[in-house]
Amino acid sequence: MYDYLLSEEYKKFKEEVREFVKTEVPPSLLKKMDNDEVQYPGEFIQALAKQNLIGIRFPKEYGGRGLNWEAEIIAEEEIGVLGSSLACLFSITSICGEAFHHFGTEDQKQRYLKPLCEGKKFCAEALTEPRGGSDFFGATCTAVKEGDNYILNGEKRFVVGAEGADFFLVYAKTNPNAPPHESLSLFVVDKSDAVESAYIYGLMGTRGGGAGRLVFKDCEVPKENIILGEGAGGKIFYQMMVPERLTTASGWIGFARACHRIATKYSTKRKAFGQTINRFEAVSFMVAENCTLLDAARAIVYNTARSIDAGAPPTLQRRLVSESKKFSTEACWKVINNTMQIMAGIGYTTVYPIERLLRDCRIGMIWTGTNEIMSLIIQHEWYKEFLSEKWLGRDIEQDAIAADHEEEKHYG
Length: 412
Ligand SMILES: Cc1cc2nc3c(=O)[nH]c(=O)nc-3n(C[C@H](O)[C@H](O)[C@H](O)COP(=O)(O)OP(=O)(O)OC[C@H]3O[C@@H](n4cnc5c(N)ncnc54)[C@H](O)[C@@H]3O)c2cc1C
Fold this sequence. Notes:
This protein has eleven helices and ten strands. By secondary structure, the protein is α+β, with helices and mostly antiparallel strands. It folds into three domains: about 5-120, Butyryl-Coa Dehydrogenase, subunit A, domain 1 (Orthogonal Bundle); about 125-235, Butyryl-CoA Dehydrogenase, subunit A, domain 2; about 235-390, Up-down Bundle (Butyryl-CoA Dehydrogenase, subunit A, domain 3). Strands 1-4-5-8 form a four-stranded mixed β-sheet, with helices on one face. Flavin-adenine dinucleotide binds near residues 134, 158 and 373.
């Protein structure tokens, strides 16, 4: 957000993250990741941890900083400048940590949350299955209790960190006969021989994050590694979707902003027909649209973060994070497309990072729930909210000239 809206503490924090992004991440890492020469940049997570920059919302006793959502999105936007893979790896501690923070036992927090925040362990979350990601509650991975263990079988795919993570948060069916929302449980699964991982996808963008497939074959998971108990998967899923969606919404603003800056600068230098191209309305109006879209995306994301910090009820949080993710990723897609148009031919080449960030951008409309699923949630929560409210404001329908023609108000 604009610095003048931030507290002194958060202005300093933003500078701290900006400095990290500027000095601690060599361009060679980004190039190697995009060339698929690096599968999982654990050293990036360790560098963040060294400066106490991951898991920042979690309590200090577990290695966090005890900050709020506003701080997290400030950091996510700055780190987002590095593109979607590193933004995602920054946020993965926030997403997986959310499960431990809200629902984990003390033992689970010590064994997993603390080493995560300290950069000693890497994690991944495994929701999506080959049969589909949108129908989350239709999961077919199973976990059957046998003595002191659960035996996990099944397959997940597109998991960031499938290659590279030390443990996985895996949703599996523990009670196939229960209603879908009560049929799933969440397990912490340590990497072992019973977890086969394969780095197999040639991705359009977002490369180097270890996205791959996981296969669980009679994988033994100690009963201490179930989070919150059998059937609690749905409740935990809804909570994890807050960081899942809000970090994408904020990270995308970071790299769309970076593209916007590059194209703005370019437009003041590049000449055509004897003048710099920013003198053409066709160009400067695209710059204007980008300013507007970025400000609007930032506004919705900050409003959501501040609403959560202020204690918005869970159903409202669900709607706001879905709106933020949908709006921000679509706005940023438009912004980056505009920047490519402004830079034209050279923007399409690897001389500038626009083409990489355009490729990175596309996944935002697909992962953490597609934007169609976001619309599904938004309308669902809105109708619930609308139909249960008692409206005390003006009845605008009565302001129509023919408002009293009640006989014309047919509803089928
Ligand atoms: C690079 C990458 C990284 C990823 N990282 C992870 C990760 O770390 N962990 C993880 O678990 N998953 C991850 N995913 C998976 C991602 O979240 C899913 O791809 C996404 O949720 C969509 O699932 P799907 O691809 O199976 O599409 P499907 O569910 O098959 O959907 C196909 C189409 O149908 C539409 N659709 C489906 N149902 C409805 C409906 N009810 N109403 C309207 N439209 C509908 C969808 O919007 C979409 O357009 C990742 C994916 C990629 C590509």
